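Q: Sequence in, structure out?
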Amino acid sequence: MRKVIVYTAAMLFAGLLPACKKKESGVCYCKYLSGDKKEFNLTGLPRSQQIDSCYVLDGYAEAFAGDCDLK
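A: Exactly. Output:
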């Protein structure tokens, strides 16, 4: 019985593993109410401009019930 539980837990964990994606620093990640997701690569900008740019993108996303976060 214990092997069955361990095997089942391992299979569930392995199924969720590909869904976990490490978020990169300097990328603005946006999610929308419709389920759409977008990534804006801002790594070529200085950190202060990354913050400002993602803030602007967040303002645009709000019009479509979205939210953007800089990682």
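The chain has a mean pLDDT of 81.
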